[in-house]
Amino acid sequence: MPQGSHVIIEVSDDGAGISPEKISNKALERGIVTRERAALMSEREMLQMIFLPGFSTAAAITNVSGRGVGMDVVRTNVEKIGGKVELDSRVGKGTTLRLRIPLTLAIIPALIVRSLRQSFALPQGALSELVHVSAENASAAIEWIDNAPLYRLRGKLLPLVFLDHLLMPAGVHTPVHERDNFIAVLDADGRKYGLVVDGLADPEEIVVKPLSSALKGIGLYSGATVLGNGELALILDPGAIAVRASVGMTAEEDGRLAAEGEALSDDTGAEFLLVEVAGRNAAVPLSDVLRIEQLPASRIEYIDYRPVLNFDGQLLPVEDSGGILNAAEQNPEAPVIVVVCRDGGRQVGIAVSHVLDVASGSDFVEAGTAQRTDGVTLLKNRVTGIVNLGGVSALPAPESGATQWNELAETVG
Amino acid sequence: MSLQKESLRSEERSASALVEICSVRLGERLFGMPISHILEIVGSARPQPVPLAPGFVGGLVHYRGDVLTVVSLRQLLGMSPVEAAQDILVLESPGGCYALLVDSVGEVLTVPAVDLEPNPSTLKDSRRGLFAGAYKLKNTLLVMLNPEKLDPIHLGAAPVA
Protein backbone atom coordinates (compact mmCIF):
# COMPACT_ATOMS: atom_id res chain seq x y z
CA MET A 1 0.00 0.00 0.00
CA PRO A 2 2.41 2.69 -1.12
CA GLN A 3 1.80 6.30 -0.28
CA GLY A 4 0.04 8.23 -2.96
CA SER A 5 -1.90 5.32 -4.33
CA HIS A 6 -5.58 5.72 -4.93
CA VAL A 7 -8.72 3.70 -5.10
CA ILE A 8 -10.39 4.42 -8.40
CA ILE A 9 -14.14 4.09 -8.79
CA GLU A 10 -15.25 4.28 -12.39
CA VAL A 11 -18.90 4.56 -13.36
CA SER A 12 -19.71 4.52 -17.05
CA ASP A 13 -22.78 4.24 -19.24
CA ASP A 14 -23.37 3.76 -22.94
CA GLY A 15 -26.00 6.45 -23.18
CA ALA A 16 -26.23 9.59 -25.24
CA GLY A 17 -23.23 11.27 -23.63
CA ILE A 18 -22.95 14.92 -22.71
CA SER A 19 -22.76 17.49 -25.47
CA PRO A 20 -20.06 20.09 -24.79
CA GLU A 21 -21.90 22.72 -26.85
CA LYS A 22 -25.02 22.27 -24.79
CA ILE A 23 -23.00 22.70 -21.61
CA SER A 24 -21.30 25.85 -22.79
CA ASN A 25 -24.56 27.36 -24.11
CA LYS A 26 -26.20 26.69 -20.78
CA ALA A 27 -23.24 28.16 -18.91
CA LEU A 28 -23.43 31.32 -21.02
CA GLU A 29 -27.17 31.54 -20.46
CA ARG A 30 -26.69 31.34 -16.72
CA GLY A 31 -23.83 33.78 -16.75
CA ILE A 32 -21.34 31.33 -15.30
CA VAL A 33 -18.75 32.04 -18.00
CA THR A 34 -18.24 34.91 -20.38
CA ARG A 35 -18.57 34.45 -24.13
CA GLU A 36 -14.86 35.17 -24.63
CA ARG A 37 -13.82 32.52 -22.14
CA ALA A 38 -16.24 29.97 -23.52
CA ALA A 39 -14.80 30.45 -26.99
CA LEU A 40 -11.32 29.56 -25.72
CA MET A 41 -12.41 26.39 -23.91
CA SER A 42 -11.57 22.93 -25.12
CA GLU A 43 -14.35 20.33 -25.16
CA ARG A 44 -12.86 18.76 -22.06
CA GLU A 45 -12.93 22.06 -20.20
CA MET A 46 -16.53 22.58 -21.23
CA LEU A 47 -17.47 19.23 -19.73
CA GLN A 48 -15.81 20.13 -16.44
CA MET A 49 -18.24 23.04 -16.11
CA ILE A 50 -20.94 20.66 -14.87
CA PHE A 51 -19.06 20.67 -11.56
CA LEU A 52 -19.49 24.42 -11.12
CA PRO A 53 -21.90 25.56 -8.43
CA GLY A 54 -25.16 26.76 -9.84
CA PHE A 55 -24.82 24.84 -13.07
CA SER A 56 -27.72 22.77 -14.33
CA THR A 57 -29.09 21.89 -17.75
CA ALA A 58 -32.46 21.03 -16.29
CA ALA A 59 -35.28 23.09 -17.79
CA ALA A 60 -37.48 22.85 -14.73
CA ILE A 61 -36.33 23.46 -11.19
CA THR A 62 -37.92 21.46 -8.38
CA ASN A 63 -37.24 21.38 -4.65
CA VAL A 64 -34.43 18.88 -5.10
CA SER A 65 -33.33 18.76 -8.69
CA GLY A 66 -32.12 21.27 -11.21
CA ARG A 67 -30.54 23.58 -8.67
CA GLY A 68 -27.01 22.95 -9.81
CA VAL A 69 -25.85 21.58 -6.50
CA GLY A 70 -25.31 17.84 -7.08
CA MET A 71 -22.05 17.68 -9.03
CA ASP A 72 -20.60 20.61 -7.09
CA VAL A 73 -21.23 18.73 -3.82
CA VAL A 74 -19.63 15.58 -5.24
CA ARG A 75 -16.51 17.43 -6.30
CA THR A 76 -16.20 19.50 -3.13
CA ASN A 77 -16.45 16.45 -0.88
CA VAL A 78 -14.14 14.27 -2.91
CA GLU A 79 -11.56 17.06 -3.06
CA LYS A 80 -11.92 17.64 0.67
CA ILE A 81 -10.56 14.15 1.32
CA GLY A 82 -7.79 14.61 -1.23
CA GLY A 83 -9.48 12.87 -4.13
CA LYS A 84 -10.37 13.87 -7.67
CA VAL A 85 -13.37 13.59 -9.94
CA GLU A 86 -12.84 13.22 -13.66
CA LEU A 87 -15.46 13.25 -16.34
CA ASP A 88 -15.15 11.91 -19.82
CA SER A 89 -17.99 11.89 -22.28
CA ARG A 90 -18.53 11.34 -25.99
CA VAL A 91 -21.74 12.30 -27.66
CA GLY A 92 -23.57 9.15 -28.69
CA LYS A 93 -21.02 6.89 -27.03
CA GLY A 94 -21.57 7.38 -23.31
CA THR A 95 -20.21 9.00 -20.18
CA THR A 96 -17.52 7.87 -17.74
CA LEU A 97 -17.21 9.36 -14.29
CA ARG A 98 -14.01 8.53 -12.42
CA LEU A 99 -13.57 9.05 -8.68
CA ARG A 100 -10.02 8.86 -7.35
CA ILE A 101 -10.01 8.48 -3.60
CA PRO A 102 -6.77 8.27 -1.62
CA LEU A 103 -6.19 4.85 -0.13
CA THR A 104 -5.53 6.36 3.28
CA LEU A 105 -9.26 6.82 3.59
CA ALA A 106 -10.13 3.47 2.12
CA ILE A 107 -11.85 0.72 4.01
CA ILE A 108 -10.09 -2.61 3.73
CA PRO A 109 -10.94 -6.05 5.08
CA ALA A 110 -8.38 -7.12 7.65
CA LEU A 111 -7.78 -9.89 10.12
CA ILE A 112 -7.06 -8.68 13.64
CA VAL A 113 -4.16 -10.59 15.19
CA ARG A 114 -2.67 -10.36 18.67
CA SER A 115 0.98 -10.13 19.55
CA LEU A 116 2.92 -8.38 22.32
CA ARG A 117 -0.40 -8.06 24.18
CA GLN A 118 -1.78 -5.67 21.59
CA SER A 119 -3.77 -5.88 18.38
CA PHE A 120 -2.49 -5.54 14.84
CA ALA A 121 -4.46 -5.51 11.61
CA LEU A 122 -3.34 -7.77 8.79
CA PRO A 123 -4.82 -6.90 5.36
CA GLN A 124 -6.81 -9.88 4.04
CA GLY A 125 -5.49 -9.31 0.53
CA ALA A 126 -2.15 -10.91 1.33
CA LEU A 127 -3.54 -13.63 3.58
CA SER A 128 -3.95 -17.05 2.04
CA GLU A 129 -4.60 -19.29 5.03
CA LEU A 130 -4.24 -19.72 8.77
CA VAL A 131 -2.57 -22.59 10.60
CA HIS A 132 -2.90 -23.24 14.31
CA VAL A 133 0.07 -24.87 16.05
CA SER A 134 -0.77 -25.66 19.66
CA ALA A 135 1.84 -25.48 22.41
CA GLU A 136 2.17 -29.32 22.54
CA ASN A 137 2.79 -29.63 18.80
CA ALA A 138 4.98 -26.56 18.45
CA SER A 139 8.34 -28.22 19.12
CA ALA A 140 7.71 -30.84 16.44
CA ALA A 141 5.83 -28.72 13.92
CA ILE A 142 8.17 -25.73 13.87
CA GLU A 143 11.55 -26.81 12.53
CA TRP A 144 14.76 -24.84 12.45
CA ILE A 145 17.69 -24.46 10.10
CA ASP A 146 20.19 -22.77 12.36
CA ASN A 147 18.17 -19.79 13.60
CA ALA A 148 15.62 -19.70 10.79
CA PRO A 149 12.26 -21.18 11.81
CA LEU A 150 10.34 -23.15 9.18
CA TYR A 151 6.98 -24.86 8.94
CA ARG A 152 6.12 -27.76 6.67
CA LEU A 153 3.03 -26.63 4.81
CA ARG A 154 1.75 -29.45 2.61
CA GLY A 155 5.24 -30.75 2.06
CA LYS A 156 6.84 -27.34 1.33
CA LEU A 157 9.02 -25.50 3.78
CA LEU A 158 7.51 -22.17 4.69
CA PRO A 159 9.83 -19.61 6.28
CA LEU A 160 8.37 -18.25 9.50
CA VAL A 161 8.58 -14.74 10.92
CA PHE A 162 7.73 -14.28 14.58
CA LEU A 163 5.94 -10.96 14.87
CA ASP A 164 6.96 -10.42 18.49
CA HIS A 165 10.66 -11.10 17.71
CA LEU A 166 10.52 -8.78 14.73
CA LEU A 167 8.87 -5.91 16.57
CA MET A 168 10.81 -6.29 19.80
CA PRO A 169 14.20 -7.75 18.93
CA ALA A 170 15.59 -7.09 22.40
CA GLY A 171 12.57 -8.38 24.31
CA VAL A 172 12.19 -11.67 26.17
CA HIS A 173 9.65 -13.86 24.39
CA THR A 174 7.66 -16.88 25.48
CA PRO A 175 9.08 -19.97 23.74
CA VAL A 176 6.83 -21.53 21.09
CA HIS A 177 6.16 -24.67 23.12
CA GLU A 178 4.67 -22.67 25.97
CA ARG A 179 2.03 -20.80 24.01
CA ASP A 180 -0.48 -21.17 21.21
CA ASN A 181 0.95 -20.23 17.83
CA PHE A 182 -1.06 -19.06 14.89
CA ILE A 183 0.65 -18.95 11.52
CA ALA A 184 -0.84 -16.50 9.06
CA VAL A 185 0.33 -17.71 5.66
CA LEU A 186 1.00 -14.57 3.64
CA ASP A 187 1.83 -14.00 0.03
CA ALA A 188 3.34 -10.55 -0.39
CA ASP A 189 4.79 -9.60 -3.77
CA GLY A 190 5.26 -13.28 -4.54
CA ARG A 191 7.11 -13.93 -1.29
CA LYS A 192 5.35 -16.58 0.69
CA TYR A 193 5.96 -16.75 4.42
CA GLY A 194 4.22 -17.47 7.68
CA LEU A 195 3.75 -14.72 10.22
CA VAL A 196 3.53 -16.20 13.70
CA VAL A 197 1.22 -14.41 16.14
CA ASP A 198 -0.07 -15.25 19.62
CA GLY A 199 -3.75 -15.04 18.87
CA LEU A 200 -6.45 -14.28 16.37
CA ALA A 201 -9.44 -12.01 16.78
CA ASP A 202 -12.27 -11.38 14.37
CA PRO A 203 -11.87 -10.18 10.82
CA GLU A 204 -13.00 -6.56 10.53
CA GLU A 205 -13.54 -3.97 7.86
CA ILE A 206 -11.11 -1.29 8.94
CA VAL A 207 -10.76 2.37 8.01
CA VAL A 208 -7.14 3.12 7.24
CA LYS A 209 -5.85 6.19 9.11
CA PRO A 210 -2.54 7.66 8.01
CA LEU A 211 0.45 7.70 10.36
CA SER A 212 2.65 10.71 10.95
CA SER A 213 5.89 10.67 9.00
CA ALA A 214 7.82 9.86 12.18
CA LEU A 215 6.00 6.52 12.37
CA LYS A 216 5.82 5.89 8.63
CA GLY A 217 9.60 5.87 8.78
CA ILE A 218 9.56 2.61 10.76
CA GLY A 219 8.52 1.01 7.49
CA LEU A 220 6.51 -1.92 8.87
CA TYR A 221 3.15 -0.23 9.29
CA SER A 222 0.98 1.08 6.51
CA GLY A 223 -1.36 2.94 8.85
CA ALA A 224 -3.43 2.62 11.96
CA THR A 225 -7.08 1.97 12.63
CA VAL A 226 -9.64 2.19 15.38
CA LEU A 227 -11.19 -1.22 16.04
CA GLY A 228 -14.81 -1.91 16.85
CA ASN A 229 -14.01 -2.09 20.56
CA GLY A 230 -12.34 1.33 20.50
CA GLU A 231 -8.83 -0.10 20.68
CA LEU A 232 -6.18 1.19 18.30
CA ALA A 233 -4.40 -1.24 16.01
CA LEU A 234 -1.43 -0.74 13.75
CA ILE A 235 -1.86 -2.04 10.22
CA LEU A 236 0.97 -4.37 9.28
CA ASP A 237 2.51 -4.15 5.83
CA PRO A 238 3.10 -7.77 4.73
CA GLY A 239 5.45 -6.77 1.92
CA ALA A 240 7.65 -4.62 4.16
CA ILE A 241 7.77 -7.34 6.82
CA ALA A 242 8.92 -9.86 4.20
CA VAL A 243 11.70 -7.54 3.12
CA ARG A 244 12.71 -6.70 6.69
CA ALA A 245 12.73 -10.31 7.84
CA SER A 246 14.99 -11.47 5.01
CA VAL A 247 17.61 -8.80 5.59
CA GLY A 248 19.95 -11.36 7.12
CA MET A 249 19.43 -13.86 4.31
CA THR A 250 22.16 -14.69 1.83
CA ALA A 251 21.60 -14.11 -1.86
CA GLU A 252 21.68 -17.86 -2.46
CA GLU A 253 18.82 -18.45 -0.10
CA ASP A 254 16.91 -15.64 -1.74
CA GLY A 255 17.22 -17.37 -5.06
CA ARG A 256 16.14 -20.68 -3.60
CA LEU A 257 13.09 -19.03 -2.07
CA ALA A 258 12.13 -17.40 -5.33
CA ALA A 259 12.53 -20.70 -7.16
CA GLU A 260 10.39 -22.35 -4.52
CA GLY A 261 7.74 -19.71 -5.02
CA GLU A 262 7.68 -20.42 -8.74
CA ALA A 263 7.50 -24.14 -8.16
CA LEU A 264 4.58 -23.61 -5.85
CA SER A 265 2.63 -21.60 -8.35
CA ASP A 266 3.27 -24.26 -11.03
CA ASP A 267 2.13 -26.99 -8.74
CA THR A 268 -1.14 -25.55 -7.65
CA GLY A 269 -3.16 -27.12 -10.40
CA ALA A 270 -6.64 -27.94 -9.18
CA GLU A 271 -7.90 -27.57 -5.65
CA PHE A 272 -10.04 -30.27 -4.15
CA LEU A 273 -12.32 -30.58 -1.18
CA LEU A 274 -11.25 -33.71 0.64
CA VAL A 275 -14.20 -35.55 2.13
CA GLU A 276 -14.72 -38.87 3.87
CA VAL A 277 -17.57 -41.07 2.66
CA ALA A 278 -18.18 -44.10 4.84
CA GLY A 279 -14.54 -44.56 5.73
CA ARG A 280 -13.07 -43.85 2.29
CA ASN A 281 -11.52 -40.57 1.22
CA ALA A 282 -12.88 -38.89 -1.86
CA ALA A 283 -12.17 -35.59 -3.59
CA VAL A 284 -14.60 -33.05 -5.02
CA PRO A 285 -13.21 -30.35 -7.33
CA LEU A 286 -13.34 -27.19 -5.23
CA SER A 287 -14.44 -25.09 -8.19
CA ASP A 288 -17.61 -27.15 -8.37
CA VAL A 289 -18.48 -26.88 -4.68
CA LEU A 290 -21.21 -24.33 -4.05
CA ARG A 291 -21.74 -24.83 -0.33
CA ILE A 292 -21.69 -27.36 2.46
CA GLU A 293 -24.98 -27.98 4.25
CA GLN A 294 -25.43 -29.61 7.61
CA LEU A 295 -29.06 -30.55 8.20
CA PRO A 296 -31.14 -33.14 10.07
CA ALA A 297 -31.63 -36.43 8.26
CA SER A 298 -35.38 -35.85 8.31
CA ARG A 299 -34.94 -33.11 5.70
CA ILE A 300 -34.00 -35.73 3.11
CA GLU A 301 -37.06 -36.91 1.18
CA TYR A 302 -37.40 -39.71 -1.32
CA ILE A 303 -38.80 -40.04 -4.82
CA ASP A 304 -38.85 -43.74 -5.77
CA TYR A 305 -36.12 -44.45 -3.22
CA ARG A 306 -34.00 -41.67 -4.69
CA PRO A 307 -32.94 -39.25 -1.98
CA VAL A 308 -33.69 -35.62 -2.77
CA LEU A 309 -33.42 -32.38 -0.86
CA ASN A 310 -35.98 -29.61 -1.05
CA PHE A 311 -34.28 -26.20 -1.05
CA ASP A 312 -36.70 -23.29 -1.17
CA GLY A 313 -38.85 -25.12 -3.68
CA GLN A 314 -35.90 -26.40 -5.70
CA LEU A 315 -35.13 -30.09 -5.70
CA LEU A 316 -31.63 -31.38 -5.45
CA PRO A 317 -30.77 -35.05 -6.15
CA VAL A 318 -28.50 -36.39 -3.44
CA GLU A 319 -25.84 -38.97 -4.15
CA ASP A 320 -25.54 -41.48 -1.34
CA SER A 321 -23.00 -44.03 -2.47
CA GLY A 322 -21.77 -44.55 1.07
CA GLY A 323 -25.20 -45.41 2.50
CA ILE A 324 -24.89 -42.57 4.99
CA LEU A 325 -28.49 -41.49 4.60
CA ASN A 326 -29.74 -45.05 5.10
CA ALA A 327 -27.73 -45.29 8.27
CA ALA A 328 -29.07 -41.98 9.49
CA GLU A 329 -32.69 -42.91 8.79
CA GLN A 330 -33.04 -44.56 12.20
CA ASN A 331 -32.32 -41.24 13.86
CA PRO A 332 -34.21 -38.48 12.00
CA GLU A 333 -32.66 -35.68 14.05
CA ALA A 334 -29.05 -36.77 13.47
CA PRO A 335 -27.22 -34.22 11.32
CA VAL A 336 -26.05 -35.23 7.87
CA ILE A 337 -23.58 -33.30 5.76
CA VAL A 338 -24.40 -32.64 2.14
CA VAL A 339 -21.88 -31.03 -0.19
CA VAL A 340 -23.82 -29.07 -2.79
CA CYS A 341 -22.00 -29.06 -6.12
CA ARG A 342 -22.46 -27.63 -9.57
CA ASP A 343 -22.51 -30.11 -12.41
CA GLY A 344 -22.88 -28.22 -15.65
CA GLY A 345 -26.20 -26.43 -15.40
CA ARG A 346 -27.64 -28.48 -12.57
CA GLN A 347 -26.89 -28.78 -8.89
CA VAL A 348 -26.37 -32.05 -7.07
CA GLY A 349 -25.78 -32.95 -3.46
CA ILE A 350 -23.33 -35.53 -2.15
CA ALA A 351 -23.88 -37.03 1.28
CA VAL A 352 -20.56 -37.33 3.13
CA SER A 353 -19.49 -38.45 6.59
CA HIS A 354 -16.97 -35.69 7.17
CA VAL A 355 -15.42 -32.77 5.34
CA LEU A 356 -11.68 -33.10 5.94
CA ASP A 357 -9.64 -30.43 4.19
CA VAL A 358 -8.95 -28.41 1.10
CA ALA A 359 -5.85 -29.51 -0.77
CA SER A 360 -4.36 -29.07 -4.18
CA GLY A 361 -4.03 -32.26 -6.14
CA SER A 362 -1.74 -33.26 -8.95
CA ASP A 363 -2.64 -35.30 -11.98
CA PHE A 364 -1.49 -38.84 -12.64
CA VAL A 365 -0.29 -40.08 -15.94
CA GLU A 366 -0.76 -43.67 -16.96
CA ALA A 367 2.49 -45.63 -17.00
CA GLY A 368 3.65 -46.23 -20.53
CA THR A 369 1.07 -44.19 -22.39
CA ALA A 370 1.72 -40.95 -20.44
CA GLN A 371 -1.97 -40.19 -20.78
CA ARG A 372 -3.66 -38.25 -18.05
CA THR A 373 -5.84 -40.42 -15.90
CA ASP A 374 -9.35 -39.37 -15.13
CA GLY A 375 -11.10 -39.71 -11.86
CA VAL A 376 -8.10 -39.91 -9.55
CA THR A 377 -5.75 -37.34 -8.09
CA LEU A 378 -2.87 -37.23 -5.65
CA LEU A 379 -4.00 -35.48 -2.50
CA LYS A 380 -1.71 -35.25 0.53
CA ASN A 381 0.41 -38.02 -1.02
CA ARG A 382 -2.53 -40.38 -1.27
CA VAL A 383 -4.29 -41.54 -4.39
CA THR A 384 -7.81 -40.25 -4.04
CA GLY A 385 -10.83 -40.84 -6.22
CA ILE A 386 -12.63 -37.80 -7.61
CA VAL A 387 -16.38 -37.91 -7.22
CA ASN A 388 -18.00 -38.10 -10.62
CA LEU A 389 -20.70 -35.47 -10.42
CA GLY A 390 -22.07 -36.35 -13.82
CA GLY A 391 -22.78 -39.83 -12.55
CA VAL A 392 -25.35 -38.61 -10.05
CA SER A 393 -28.63 -39.85 -11.43
CA ALA A 394 -31.02 -37.21 -12.61
CA LEU A 395 -34.49 -36.81 -11.24
CA PRO A 396 -37.32 -38.44 -13.18
CA ALA A 397 -38.45 -35.93 -15.79
CA PRO A 398 -39.79 -36.12 -19.32
CA GLU A 399 -36.48 -34.80 -20.65
CA SER A 400 -34.09 -34.58 -17.80
CA GLY A 401 -32.23 -31.35 -18.39
CA ALA A 402 -31.17 -28.39 -16.39
CA THR A 403 -33.92 -26.14 -17.75
CA GLN A 404 -36.69 -28.41 -16.55
CA TRP A 405 -35.59 -28.23 -12.96
CA ASN A 406 -37.63 -25.33 -11.81
CA GLU A 407 -40.79 -26.59 -13.46
CA LEU A 408 -40.19 -29.98 -11.92
CA ALA A 409 -39.75 -28.48 -8.50
CA GLU A 410 -43.05 -26.71 -8.91
CA THR A 411 -44.96 -29.85 -9.87
CA VAL A 412 -43.44 -31.96 -7.12
CA GLY A 413 -43.53 -29.28 -4.46
CA MET B 1 -5.27 63.80 37.45
CA SER B 2 -2.00 63.11 35.78
CA LEU B 3 -1.31 60.29 38.24
CA GLN B 4 -4.61 58.62 37.32
CA LYS B 5 -3.76 58.83 33.65
CA GLU B 6 -0.35 57.35 34.32
CA SER B 7 -1.79 54.32 36.15
CA LEU B 8 -4.40 53.79 33.44
CA ARG B 9 -1.73 53.76 30.80
CA SER B 10 0.37 51.24 32.70
CA GLU B 11 -2.70 49.01 33.16
CA GLU B 12 -3.31 49.12 29.43
CA ARG B 13 0.27 48.26 28.74
CA SER B 14 0.35 45.33 31.14
CA ALA B 15 -3.01 44.01 29.93
CA SER B 16 -1.78 43.89 26.35
CA ALA B 17 1.40 42.17 27.46
CA LEU B 18 -0.12 39.38 29.55
CA VAL B 19 0.15 35.84 28.26
CA GLU B 20 -1.87 32.80 29.28
CA ILE B 21 0.16 29.67 29.79
CA CYS B 22 -0.96 26.16 30.59
CA SER B 23 1.40 24.69 33.15
CA VAL B 24 2.30 21.00 32.96
CA ARG B 25 4.26 18.89 35.42
CA LEU B 26 6.83 16.26 34.71
CA GLY B 27 7.95 14.81 38.01
CA GLU B 28 9.23 17.84 39.93
CA ARG B 29 9.76 19.95 36.85
CA LEU B 30 7.34 22.61 35.65
CA PHE B 31 6.84 23.37 31.99
CA GLY B 32 4.54 25.73 30.14
CA MET B 33 2.70 25.69 26.83
CA PRO B 34 0.95 28.75 25.36
CA ILE B 35 -2.76 28.00 25.50
CA SER B 36 -3.23 29.32 21.98
CA HIS B 37 -1.65 26.11 20.65
CA ILE B 38 -3.73 23.70 22.74
CA LEU B 39 -6.82 22.21 21.14
CA GLU B 40 -7.84 20.03 24.04
CA ILE B 41 -6.56 18.37 27.19
CA VAL B 42 -7.30 14.67 27.55
CA GLY B 43 -6.94 13.18 31.01
CA SER B 44 -5.84 9.67 32.06
CA ALA B 45 -4.73 8.64 28.61
CA ARG B 46 -3.21 5.26 27.88
CA PRO B 47 -1.52 5.49 24.48
CA GLN B 48 -1.21 2.37 22.37
CA PRO B 49 2.50 1.52 22.12
CA VAL B 50 4.14 1.39 18.70
CA PRO B 51 6.91 -1.22 18.54
CA LEU B 52 10.15 -0.05 16.88
CA ALA B 53 9.08 3.60 17.03
CA PRO B 54 11.69 6.33 17.60
CA GLY B 55 12.53 7.01 21.23
CA PHE B 56 10.43 10.12 21.65
CA VAL B 57 7.20 8.44 20.50
CA GLY B 58 4.91 7.51 23.38
CA GLY B 59 2.47 5.66 21.12
CA LEU B 60 -0.78 6.46 19.40
CA VAL B 61 -4.06 7.83 20.71
CA HIS B 62 -7.52 7.92 19.24
CA TYR B 63 -8.74 11.51 19.15
CA ARG B 64 -12.09 12.38 17.55
CA GLY B 65 -11.82 9.81 14.79
CA ASP B 66 -8.18 10.54 14.08
CA VAL B 67 -5.11 8.64 15.14
CA LEU B 68 -2.55 11.00 16.67
CA THR B 69 1.12 10.36 17.28
CA VAL B 70 2.00 10.87 20.94
CA VAL B 71 5.25 12.59 21.83
CA SER B 72 6.28 11.57 25.31
CA LEU B 73 7.97 14.52 26.99
CA ARG B 74 9.52 12.15 29.54
CA GLN B 75 11.10 9.99 26.83
CA LEU B 76 12.14 13.06 24.88
CA LEU B 77 13.98 14.52 27.87
CA GLY B 78 15.50 11.17 28.77
CA MET B 79 13.53 10.73 31.98
CA SER B 80 12.53 7.29 33.28
CA PRO B 81 8.99 6.19 32.31
CA VAL B 82 6.16 6.14 34.87
CA GLU B 83 3.42 3.54 35.25
CA ALA B 84 0.62 5.91 36.27
CA ALA B 85 -1.89 7.25 33.76
CA GLN B 86 -0.78 10.54 32.28
CA ASP B 87 -2.44 13.56 30.69
CA ILE B 88 -2.31 14.48 27.04
CA LEU B 89 -2.25 17.89 25.39
CA VAL B 90 -3.66 17.85 21.87
CA LEU B 91 -1.66 20.44 19.97
CA GLU B 92 -2.21 22.05 16.63
CA SER B 93 0.73 22.32 14.32
CA PRO B 94 1.26 23.08 10.65
CA GLY B 95 1.76 19.39 9.87
CA GLY B 96 -1.51 18.38 11.57
CA CYS B 97 -2.39 17.64 15.16
CA TYR B 98 -0.26 15.68 17.58
CA ALA B 99 -0.43 14.76 21.23
CA LEU B 100 2.04 15.58 23.99
CA LEU B 101 2.18 13.19 26.92
CA VAL B 102 2.96 14.78 30.30
CA ASP B 103 2.59 13.62 33.91
CA SER B 104 -0.19 16.04 34.75
CA VAL B 105 -1.68 19.28 33.55
CA GLY B 106 -1.78 22.10 36.10
CA GLU B 107 -3.54 25.46 36.17
CA VAL B 108 -3.50 28.14 33.50
CA LEU B 109 -1.18 30.96 34.60
CA THR B 110 -1.43 34.54 33.44
CA VAL B 111 2.02 36.08 33.41
CA PRO B 112 3.41 39.34 32.08
CA ALA B 113 5.28 38.78 28.85
CA VAL B 114 8.18 40.88 30.07
CA ASP B 115 9.06 38.17 32.60
CA LEU B 116 10.21 35.85 29.83
CA GLU B 117 13.94 35.23 29.84
CA PRO B 118 15.63 33.66 26.82
CA ASN B 119 17.32 30.26 27.01
CA PRO B 120 20.69 30.47 28.79
CA SER B 121 23.70 30.08 26.55
CA THR B 122 24.84 27.16 28.69
CA LEU B 123 21.83 25.08 27.63
CA LYS B 124 22.70 22.01 25.57
CA ASP B 125 22.17 22.48 21.83
CA SER B 126 19.86 19.48 21.63
CA ARG B 127 17.52 21.09 24.19
CA ARG B 128 17.74 24.65 22.93
CA GLY B 129 15.17 24.11 20.18
CA LEU B 130 12.69 22.38 22.45
CA PHE B 131 12.51 25.22 24.96
CA ALA B 132 11.48 28.80 24.29
CA GLY B 133 12.93 30.46 27.35
CA ALA B 134 11.54 30.55 30.88
CA TYR B 135 9.24 32.67 33.03
CA LYS B 136 10.42 33.64 36.48
CA LEU B 137 7.68 32.64 38.88
CA LYS B 138 7.90 33.46 42.57
CA ASN B 139 9.59 30.27 43.70
CA THR B 140 10.33 28.36 40.52
CA LEU B 141 11.03 28.65 36.83
CA LEU B 142 8.37 27.89 34.25
CA VAL B 143 10.21 26.48 31.24
CA MET B 144 8.34 27.27 28.06
CA LEU B 145 7.96 24.49 25.48
CA ASN B 146 8.21 25.23 21.78
CA PRO B 147 5.16 23.56 20.14
CA GLU B 148 6.59 23.74 16.59
CA LYS B 149 9.79 21.96 17.59
CA LEU B 150 7.95 19.23 19.53
CA ASP B 151 5.98 18.18 16.45
CA PRO B 152 6.77 14.50 15.68
CA ILE B 153 7.39 15.43 12.04
CA HIS B 154 10.10 17.83 13.14
CA LEU B 155 11.50 15.47 15.76
CA GLY B 156 11.51 12.60 13.29
CA ALA B 157 13.38 14.65 10.70
CA ALA B 158 16.05 15.83 13.15
CA PRO B 159 16.43 13.20 15.85
CA VAL B 160 17.18 14.59 19.29
CA ALA B 161 20.15 13.14 21.06
CATH architecture of chain B: Beta Barrel
Count of discrete structural domains of chain A? 3
Ends of chain B: how far apart? 59 Å
Unreliable stretches covering 5 or more consecutive residues of chain A: 247-268, 398-409
Task: Please tell me what the overall shape of chain B is.
Answer: globular
Portion in strands of chain B: 35-45%
CATH architecture of the largest domain in chain A: Beta Barrel
Give the helix proportion of chain A (percent range): 10-25%
Enumerate the strands of the largest sheet of chain B in spatial order, edge to edge or round the barrel: 8-1-2-11-10-9
- Strand composition percent of chain A: 35-45%
The H-level CATH homologous superfamily of chain B, spelled out, is: CheA-289, Domain 4
Structural class of chain B: alpha+beta
Number of helices of chain A: 11
SSE topology:
The complex is a heterodimer of chains A (413) and B (161).
Chain A: E1 6-12, H1 20-29, H2 35-40, H3 43-48, H4 70-80, E2 84-90, E3 94-102, E4 107-115, E5 118-123, E6 127-133, H5 135-141, E7 142-145, E8 148-153, E9 156-162, H6 163-167, E10 181-188, E11 191-197, E12 199-207, H7 213-216, E13 221-226, E14 232-236, H8 238-245, H9 251-267, E15 270-277, E16 280-285, E17 289-296, E18 300-303, E19 306-311, E20 314-319, H10 324-328, E21 335-343, E22 346-352, E23 354-361, E24 376-379, E25 382-386, H11 405-412
Parallel strand pairs in A: 5-14, 9-11, 16-25, 20-22
Antiparallel strand pairs in A: 1-3, 2-3, 4-5, 4-12, 6-10, 7-8, 8-9, 10-11, 13-14, 15-16, 15-23, 17-21, 18-19, 19-20, 21-22, 24-25
Chain B: H1 2-16, E1 18-26, E2 29-34, E3 38-45, E4 57-63, E5 66-72, H2 73-76, E6 86-91, E7 98-102, E8 104-112, E9 116-117, H3 125-128, E10 131-136, E11 141-145, H4 147-150, H5 152-157
Parallel strand pairs in B: 2-11, 5-7
Antiparallel strand pairs in B: 1-2, 1-8, 3-6, 4-5, 6-7, 9-10, 10-11
